Amino acid sequence: MEFTVNLTTEQIIDFIQQIPPEEKIAVLTKLAEEAHAEHAEQIRYGEAKVRKVCAARGLDWDAMTEEERIDFIDDLVHEDRECSQ
Prior knowledge:
Elements: H1 9-18, H2 21-56, H3 66-77
């Protein structure tokens, strides 16, 4: 039999504040690892999308310099002008 307990964020924080320091470290370490993994996945997703947009414009993201990449992204986010081709 499974039970689900719904807790508010405040209740979770209060609970974590009551546990021993080594358990707090374990909880925070796990949360940090998960946040890092999610961030890394978002980066990979974004890079794949940027590469696809570049390819659609006949550009190679991997061959671009850092300055070219910055200019390309700057062009993408400004709707008042066209992207460089």
